[in-house]
Amino acid sequence: MTSPSTNRKTRPIRVGTLTIGGGGITVQSMAATRTQDVEATLRQIEILEQAGADLIRIAVDSKADVIALEELSRATDIPISVDLQENYRLADAVGPFVQKVRYNPGHLHHHEKGKSAQEKAHWLADIARKHDMAIRIGCNAGSMAPEYGERYGKDDVTALVEQAKDHCAYMDEVGFTDYLVSIKDSDPRLVIEANQRFAAARPDVPLHLGVTEAGMPPDGIIKTRIAFEQLISQGIGDTIRVSLTVPFENKGQEIEVGRELLSDIAAGRFRSVPKGFFDGLNIIACPSCSRVENEKFIELAEQVKEATTYAAEQNVTIAVMGCRVNGPGETDDADLGLWCGPTSVNLKKGPQTLGNYPYDEVLPALLTELKQILAS
After folding, report:
1. Contact 57, 69 (CB under 8 A)
2. Are 198 and 207 in contact (CB under 8 A)?
3. In degrees to the nearest 10, what's the CA dihedral of 372, 355, 357, 366?
4. Domains, the chain
5. Cα–Cα distance between 323 and 331 in angstroms, integer?
């Protein structure tokens, strides 16, 4: 299922029975549960299927996840994409069960440190060709490869765009063409600028759009709408994912919101952003996904939102992150951050870790730090 064509004709790539690029826009989402919890993840697949997902993404970070994936892949005819997390070497193991893999250039350095990013990307292209898979080169501002941060400093837009362009070149070097790119951040303004610049440099490459860690509705929907309205109206974007912090059973809302946004854009129903929308308190919260090690983080994000309403007019950013993949980087850039683990939460002030707390004890500590920031 696709939306009306855009005016930017990228190279079409094949993802199983699905085509991404070439004019249409597909809508996808990600299973929110731990992959090894087969029963719960099967329920996620069912929810996303019923909501009308064109593609379903599942995270894999271990051999146990691969074993679960084999069973999960038999549960649906919808193409499956695997998020390789921090272990790109699992690509060969997942190949027989999926139609697409996503790797993050910022995580390639975690394994086989003696090999270059170029060598690892070439290997991924060979594996994808072997198993007839597509590739998503997924670049996130919160987890950039160290060399790009060193090279471009605080200019995240340039760093992200150059990283994406380099990895496209690695694919081109070995003649692999079934790839697309995503460039994401929690700030829709960065998402807009980075995708505009990449699309100008590589108009042939399909783009996956999303505002990562958009947060809870309605703010998360507004942030996503801002980026999508600006980009899709310019013909930029071939597949979309709306990232919302919602209970697991509500995961289908990401698909429903995505289709509504596409319908509105196609009909010219644009919604103005109120003056000062980006001023004041900004709560960043990652979407519930299979990287999350404790779903209590969703309840914690709601508690943070409710407990900080008194500071709505203050220019402070609080990040509530549910996993170790994006948690450290995204909380580094926030005034205060909660990086949630399996049994406890890391409280951070910018890049500085202030302490580790049980879930039911971290909120008072956060509010104490917020009070000090506001007082200063």
Report:
1. no
2. yes
3. 20
4. 13-266 (3.20.20.20), 282-375 (3.30.413.10)
5. 11
Q: How many helices (H) and strands (E) does the chain have?
A: 12, 15
Q: Which two tokens stand for residue 292?
A: 């999350």
* Cis bond before residue 217 (omega within 30° of 0): no
Collapsed DSSP state (helix, strand, coil) of residue 175: coil
Q: Position 42: which residue type?
A: L
* Tens digit of each residue's pLDDT, the chain (376 residues): 344 445 678 999 999 999 999 989 999 999 999 999 999 999 999 999 999 999 999 999 999 999 999 999 999 999 999 999 889 999 999 999 999 999 999 999 988 999 999 999 999 999 999 999 999 999 999 899 999 989 999 899 999 999 999 999 999 999 999 999 999 999 999 999 999 999 999 999 999 999 988 889 999 999 999 999 999 999 999 999 999 999 999 999 999 999 999 999 999 888 867 667 788 999 988 876 667 778 888 899 999 999 999 999 999 999 998 877 777 777 888 999 998 988 999 999 999 999 999 999 999 999 999 999 999 8
Q: Is 367 helix (H, G, I), strand (E, B) or coil?
A: helix
φ, ψ at 287 (rounded to 5°): -70, 150
> Hey, what's the torsion of the CAs at 223, 224, 225, 231, to 10 degrees?
110
Which single residue is written with the structure tokens 């995503």? Answer: 182
DSSP tag of 92: H
Which of 152, 233, 168 minimizes the C-alpha distance to 201? Answer: 168
**For the chain, what's the residue count?**
376
Task: Using the structure block, give the residue that is written with the tokens 């994006």.
Answer: 326
pTM for the model stands at 0.83
Whole-angstrom distance, CA of residue 263 vs CA of residue 272: 16
Contact yes or no for 177/13 (Cβ under 8 A) = yes
Cβ neighbours around 247 below 10 Å, total: 13
Residue 74, burial from CB neighbour count under 10 angstroms (0-12, 13-18, 19+): exposed
Degrees to nearest 5, angle at CA 32 with 259 and 219: 55
Tokens, residue 306: 């409710």
- Per DSSP bridges, beta strands 18-20 and 13-15 are antiparallel
- Residues 138 and 182: beta-carbon distance below 8 Å: yes
